[in-house]
Specification:
The chain is of the alpha/beta class and about 325 residues long. It folds into 2 domains: about 130 residues, Rossmann fold (3-Layer(aba) Sandwich), CATH 3.40.50.720; about 180 residues, NAD(P)-binding Rossmann-like Domain (Rossmann fold, 3-Layer(aba) Sandwich), CATH 3.40.50.720. It is built from 12 helices and 12 strands. The protein is elongated, with a radius of gyration of 21 Å.
């Protein structure tokens, strides 16, 4: 009996190594996808993806035997889940296992941005300390943080902020009654009441450019914006202009609209801390994520169902 053919999209050596004893794994990404679809499309029954390549209507139409898509990560905005749902496909992601890692990184990026840690490092390395002290800067002590999103990771970030004795409020579609933080149904209203915004919400059409020029203007001249969500949730040109014009004070960014291409304007700014999308990027956590991708695929083809299906997947309706 032929082994199940799995298409692996995007540099997941650990996932592929775990799948290979039991599955026929095709490793491709970018330009190689077209050839793999042409040669093997009708036989592919599962896709494992890092989310770098779009899985939309056109690709799905060329995968008639496809049963499931296993996403390596919590965010799955690179997958057209509505098209997958119409075909009865199961889509899984990797929640929970990266919550604390991303929350730690969010706090590190927030502190680095507020306390200007990369700038201070450059100050020492360039020898400028010999000419005088590093200038005084902002603090976390007199700030209120507004979280844009209050999902699993948002809750972990809020816990850490409470340990820092920093007031927390949040914006989300619906209030969560089990939380002690004030909920703002209107993002601009929250931005006007705080001086620090931290985005930790899913990407996709519903949140595209949610943080726009009006939100940044409401945040104001003391404002700091930190993004550990998706580059798509902020209007990037509006953010660049807000930083350039000092409409806001600073930004800390782990994600960008067109990764890995970062706008030249951001690269030249001293009031921005830039990271290469490393929220979950540790050996420990990526190992847990990879194992969950594998476990979802194995569980499905053993007839046990998916372990962590996304809310839109048809499995929830069975």
């Amino acid at each position: 009996m032929a082994r199940v053919k799995v298409l692996s999209l995007g540099e997941m050596a650990d996932v592929e190594r775990q799948l290979e004893p039991s599955f026929d794994v095709l490793r491709v990404t970018g330009p190689g996808i077209e050839g793999a679809l042409a040669a093997h499309g009708p036989a592919i029954r599962a896709v494992a993806t890092r989310g770098r390549d779009r899985i939309g209507e056109e690709m799905l139409a060329r995968l008639p035997a496809l049963e499931m898509i296993a996403n390596y990560g919590v965010g799955y905005d690179s997958i057209d889940v509505e098209a997958a749902r119409r075909r009865g496909l199961v889509v899984t992601n990797t929640p929970e296992v990266l919550n604390d890692e991303v929350a730690d990184l969010a706090m590190a990026l927030l502190l680095a941005t507020v306390r200007q840690i990369p700038q201070a490092d450059r100050f020492v390395r360039s020898g400028r300390w010999l000419q005088g002290n590093f200038p005084l800067g902002p603090t976390l002590r007199d700030r209120t943080v507004g979280l844009i999103g209050m999902g699993r990771i948002g809750r972990r970030i809020a816990q850490r902020l409470r340990a820092f004795e920093v007031p927390v409020v949040y914006h989300s579609r619906m209030p969560q009654t089990d939380l002690p933080y004030r909920h703002y149904p209107d993002l601009r209203a929250m931005a006007a009441d705080v001086d620090t915004l931290l985005a930790i919400l899913p990407g996709g059409a519903a949140t595209r450019k949610l943080v726009d020029a009006s939100v940044l203007s409401a945040l104001g001249a003391r404002g700091i914006f930190v993004n550990v969500a998706r580059g798509s949730v902020v209007d990037e040109p509006a953010l660049i202009e807000a930083l350039r014009s000092k409409t806001i004070l600073a930004a800390g960014l782990d994600v960008f609209a067109d990764e890995p291409r970062v706008p030249e304007a951001l690269l030249g700014m001293e009031n921005v801390v830039l990271l290469p999308h490393v929220g979950s990027a540790t050996h420990y956590t990526r190992g847990l994520m990879g194992k969950l991708v594998v476990d979802n695929i194995v569980s499905w083809f053993e007839g046990k169902g998916p372990l962590t299906p996304v809310p839109e997947t048809p499995w929830h309706r069975r």
